[in-house]
Amino acid sequence: MDDAEKTEVAESDGKTPDGDPDKASGSVPEGRRKVPYWLSQVPYALVLSALAAGIVVVAAAYFKRGPAIIAAALLLAATFRLFLPKDWIGLLAVRRRWVDLLTLVSLALLLIVLAWVAPQLSA
User: Fold this and answer.
1) N or C, fewer C-beta in 10 Å, the chain?
2) What's the pLDDT at 1?
3) Is 54 helix (H, G, I), strand (E, B) or coil?
4) Residue 63 in contact with residue 113, Cβ under 8 Å?
């Protein structure tokens, strides 16, 4: 992610990226330290793990459970994006917050509908 993209994502969250704390109206409070990079990627890793589990379940021919697990992973990503501060979400911050939330929730709802209407395969 280049500097212009970081600035755009940060401005959409109401904060400026790693810069002068004086010009950031919503900067990190003095008592709170900046989160290490590896720790900011933990929510992303959790979402990817849940997505991988859903894909494995689909590959095992469970076409109702798999999309439901993937939808749950997308809703988890939306929850992280909604409630975690900007410096804790890592790669989950792709676009503006409202665009990310709208995209994640829409895809999750579509997958829930898909899981609901998919026929059950008999063995």
Assistant:
1) C
2) 60
3) helix
4) no
